[in-house]
Each structure stands twice: as C-alpha cells, then as structure tokens.
Write a structure and sequence with these properties.
This protein is α/β, with parallel strands linked by helices. The protein has a domain of 122 residues: Rossmann fold (3-Layer(aba) Sandwich). The strands form two sheets. It has a four-stranded parallel beta sheet with strand order 2-1-3-4, sandwiched between helices. A four-stranded parallel beta sheet has the order 6-5-7-8, with helices on both faces. Strand 5, helix 5 and strand 6 form a beta-alpha-beta unit. Helix 4 runs antiparallel to helix 8 and helix 6 runs parallel beside helix 7.
C-alpha cells in the first residue's frame, strides 16, 4: 500500500455551535490549500468529532503519517499538554501510523497582518472623524495560567500599536489572568482618548468573545463621551489559513519548533517556579465528545456531569483586576 499523509487539525472545542462551524471552515480552507493531503479535524472537549475520531478517520482512509497541528493561537496548557497527551496515547495504541506534532500559530507576520486587517475594518466602518492618534486600542487575549502565552498577546498589542499608529494601546484578557476586560476598559477610559477600539485576538466566536463585546457595551454605557468600537475576531481570514498551512509544512521541513524556552513546565519562570517538572497530561479525557449543550468553559472548572478537574493554582488569583473579581460577582469574567 502506498504511503499516505494526513493532516489533523486539533481544536479545543466549544459549546457554541458557531465556533464549531468556524473551526470546520478552517479545515475546509486547509483542504483547499493543501489538496495533496487528507485533512480532518477534532476537538479536545465540548464538541464532536473528538480528536481520536478524526485520527481514526485518517487512519481508516489509509494515512500512515499524520501531521497534527494545534488549532490555537498560542502554546499554553492545551497545546503543550492536553493535545500531546491525546496524540501520544493514540500513537501508543496504533503502531501502524506515525503522528508528528506541529506548532501553534504563534507570533507570525501573517497573523499580525490578519489582525491589523480586522482592526482597520472596524476603524473604517466607524469613520475617520476621530484621529488615529486620539484612538486607544485594546487587544483582548484568551488569558491563560501560562505567562509565556499571555506575554505573546502583549507582543501582538505592541506590533499592532506601532504598526497602525494608534495613540495608545493596552492588553486585556478574557479570563484566568489580569487585567480582565471590564477593569481594563475602565482603566483605559482614564487615559482620556476619544475613541477606544476593542479587538478580541481570538480565532473563533464563542461565549468569551460575546462576553468581551458585552463588557465593552457595559463600560461604554458608563462613559457616553467616549466612542467604543468593537472589532471583529480573526476567524478564517485568508492569512490565518495560510499560517495553518505553513505550520503543516514546517513539520516536514524541519522548522517545527515548539517554543519551550519560556515554558513554565521546563524552566523557572518568575512566579511560576513550582510548576517546573509537573506531569504533562490531558485533563480533558472525561469530557471528550460531550457536545455543545449546557457547558461553559472557565478554568478551575467543575462540569455538570459530575467530574471535577483543576489546573495548577494561579499564583495571582487574588489580583484586584483579575479572577478575584469573578468571585465578587462584578461580572468581570
């Protein structure tokens, strides 16, 4: 039998059906860009097919080598631990297939250009009555308990700020770390800019993107003298799909380097020293294929199916602009 190569796009999964559809469109976009490969996809949790199902499909269609890429912007716990755990387990159970794991989308000129396009679209739609130098940009990342991943969002902010010439820019996060969206926007208002552009640096829609827009509306209502502009998230921008295709080719071309230099599991990152050497294992095995009904996904999660799992405690969980605000019921999740 001839050797056949498959491509597996590994997503986190969402209970938002729109996010699942958008992830499917990424797989479709890859098929168009890489017709020489059999492309499939799967999720860690909350949606089907799960990753194992996608791997089964590729193997049953004759794939002997599978190039797996994380469908994620940055390498935090899901890309560093959970997906590799699923892939390693599957590899151990099927010695007739070789699985090679690629890198996340990461900091890439194409990704920055895609992000810039989304911001420019929003500014153009809002009109040019406010000067660029009188505009403040707020880039909102997912937020993780991994400072390496969080620092990448800050780098995206700086690249967009300097590249597009805004008067000022700030970085916020939708959860886990600080500053969260609502307190970050309140802080931004104090800087006195006439317009604030809020850009979720997210691949897909979902409850977190919707919350970002909701908090933007909440803060805007408190400050009617400031114009708030909501930019669209990345979605299947052509440059995003080009970056996915490049990550697949990097696996074959020897440029496949996961960023481990600042990985909290491998080196003593300031404030996270206790996490060096922790076992890297997936905590999603019990929620694979749950589906899109009735689940939210906040970290330190307790799911309503009777299972509880936790991440390593976040060292700054009591930060006044971070997760503690959720406990106080202010809505700044």
């Amino acid at each position: 039998m001839a050797e056949k190569t498959g491509v597996m796009v590994c997503g986190h999964g969402s209970r938002d059906t729109g996010a699942v559809r958008e992830f499917q469109s990424v797989a479709a976009g890859l098929r168009t860009r890489m017709p020489e490969y059999d492309v499939d996809y799967g999720f860690l949790e909350f949606a089907t097919p799960i990753i194992r199902t996608g791997l089964d499909a590729l193997r049953e269609r004759g794939a002997t080598t599978i190039l797996a890429v994380p469908g994620m912007l940055f390498a935090a716990g899901h890309a560093k631990n959970d997906i590799p755990s699923v892939l390693n387990t599957y590899q151990a159970q099927h010695d007739n297939v070789e699985i090679r794991y690629g890198t996340e989308l990461g900091i890439d000129p194409k990704m920055i250009s895609a992000a810039g396009a989304r911001v420019e679209e929003a500014v153009s739609a809002a009109g040019d009555q406010v000067a660029r130098t009188d505009t403040l940009l707020v880039v909102v990342g997912r937020g993780a308990s991994d400072p390496d991943a969080n620092s990448n969002v800050a780098k995206i902010t700086r690249m967009l700020w300097e590249g597009l010439g805004f008067g000022w820019a700030e970085t916020a996060y939708s959860g886990v770390t600080f500053p969260l969206v609502e307190p970050a926007l309140e802080q931004a208002v104090r800087l006195g800019f006439k317009r604030i552009v809020v850009f979720p640096y997210f691949l897909f829609t979902g409850i977190l993107v919707k919350r970002i827009y909701d908090y933007t509306d909440t803060v805007a209502a408190r400050h009617p003298d400031v114009e708030f502009v909501k930019a669209g998230y990345l979605n299947d921008h052509p440059l995003v799909l080009d970056t996915f295709a490049e990550r697949v080719r990097n696996i074959l071309g020897g440029e496949n380097t996961m960023n481990c230099q600042l990985c909290k599991y491998r080196t003593q990152v300031l404030g996270f020293e206790a996490e060096v050497g922790l076992a890297q294992e997936s905590h999603h095995h019990h929620v694979e294929g749950i589906g899109t009904g009735g689940h939210d996904h906040d970290h330190g999660h307790t799911h309503d199916h009777g299972h509880t799992h936790t991440h390593q405690p976040y060292p700054h969980a009591d930060h006044p602009m971070g997760p503690v605000s959720m406990k106080k019921g202010s809505g700044s999740a």
